[in-house]
Amino acid sequence: MNWDETKPMVSIKDVYKSFGTLEVLKGVSLDVMKGEVICIIGPSGSGKSTLIRCINGLNDIQSGSILVEGQEVNDPELNKLELRKKVGMVFQQYNLFPHKTALENVMMAPIRVLKHDKEIAQKAAIKLLRKVGLEDKVNAYPGEMSGGQQQRVAIARSLAMNPDVILFDEVTAALDPETVNEVLLTIKKLAEDGMTCILVTHEMGFAREVADHIYFTDGGLIVEHGNPKKFFENAKDPRTKEFLSQIL
Amino acid sequence: MKHHPYKTDLPVMLPFKPVETESFGSTIKLWYVVPILALILGTSAIAQSGSDIRLGALQTLMRWMPLLLQGFIFNVLISVMAMAIGTGLGAALGIGQLSLNRFVRSSSWLLTQFFRNAPWLVLLFFAMFLLPFEVNVFGIIIPLPDWVKATIGLALPVMANVSEIIRGAVLSLPSGQWEAAESLAYSRRQTLWLIILPQCLKRMLPPWMNLYAILTMATVLASIVGVSEVMTLTGEALAAEGGRPDLLAPFYAFVLLIFFVYCYPIARLTVRLERKFSVIN
Description:
The complex is a heterodimer. Chain A is α/β, with parallel strands linked by helices. Chain A has a single domain, classed as Rossmann fold (3-Layer(aba) Sandwich), CATH 3.40.50. Chain A has nine helices and ten strands. Chain B is an all-alpha fold. Chain B has helices at residues 24-49, 57-96, 102-116, 120-130, 146-172, 175-183, 188-218, 230-240, 245-280; strands spanning 134-137, 140-143. In chain B, strands 1-2 form a two-stranded antiparallel ribbon. In chain B, a hairpin with a 2-residue loop joins strand 1 (134-137) and strand 2 (140-143). In chain B, helix 5 (146-172) packs across helix 7 (188-218). Classes of the chains: A alpha/beta, B mainly alpha. Chains A and B meet through helix 2, strand 6, helix 3 and helix 5 of A and helix 6 and helix 7 of B.
């Protein structure tokens, strides 16, 4: 990837989004530099998931601009397939393909979408499954794995496309408490390897430890943002304070 | 009178016992009941006739049985062919209903709704009287006998129902599957063929089999338009025997019986598959 590292890799400016008459995003702006880990936190219904779903074009926006490596997402002429090769996504409900094994889940897109050679894709997929600690689950079907294991396969599946940035949409929210950590550790490893990550999360401890920058959303707006230390210890906005007092 | 408070013949007084879900094998026992039923019907008819010069109703039925079974094989043939044609066309129509192209989507929808909400018999008449008796394909003349026309007529409602089965199965998948595939940059066509439809096959199998059983039973409609299937042959056999009223019950009971023996296992299998898939999904 040749991206001018002085410019933000993802640049969101003044984004408005509504579902019918319901305004979900009311002028949101944020920038993400290469290699940064961004956590978006906030109460339910504050538009955080909608925001990251706009970045890979799963949701369209009414106005504003989203640039991914300089490419405008809010453009009817946009080649979504090209955008999605650069932007990976991991979901709350894992969304693995239940009729395919872990290995097939991971190697299918490189073969079918990127037209990689099957043997090379398979080797890469096994390597990725090893990276997320699931080399022994290569031939398991999603239904045979725990939630944490499925989510790690989903992360490997996203990595297999070799994206420049990965979106994580509340990826631990559906997990049993004891499996949350294995997924968070996997993401932490990615972040340490320099992967650009945008996370919507409720894991405050994780956000504090891993994030470079934290955004707090409420009512479709970014109310406050800053580095973790400043954000958790020195929140200014009363809404942030209230939210943090409830959570921490 | 001595009587134990817990021993009673009244069903309402008996403690509740959940009915065990019967396995496929045990239900076969039920089949024995049916021939017995037919036997009773047959013998009672003999008793009614009270005549001894003519053959008994059962013997008469035995004589006609090979012909009637041949007729039934014809019903099966019609049902299999109509199912094959209907499934092929219905698959295309069902996928058409999911098209992003508005024209394709709405015309597929319209065709589906039209044939799904039409009486099968009317469609059968429609096919019988509107299709030519032969078609000319690149100079080769292919005759279209009545049974072929009937097959086409029955394939039309099957097509519409298969179309809806496919649409329903695709819409019943969680939207997360589409989103995951889109996020991995699969094209819509790839998403449909590699990810969505393979998962739908399992969901579609039980309603599809159900449809087949219904179609098989509907093949007797072809008798109305003169195709020599089992109902037509039964009528002809009865006429050949001089319209003896004592033969009506055993003959039609026999026809009912062969349909039951053919369709009931399909229905049982459908229920079993439904149960199995509902556990998996």
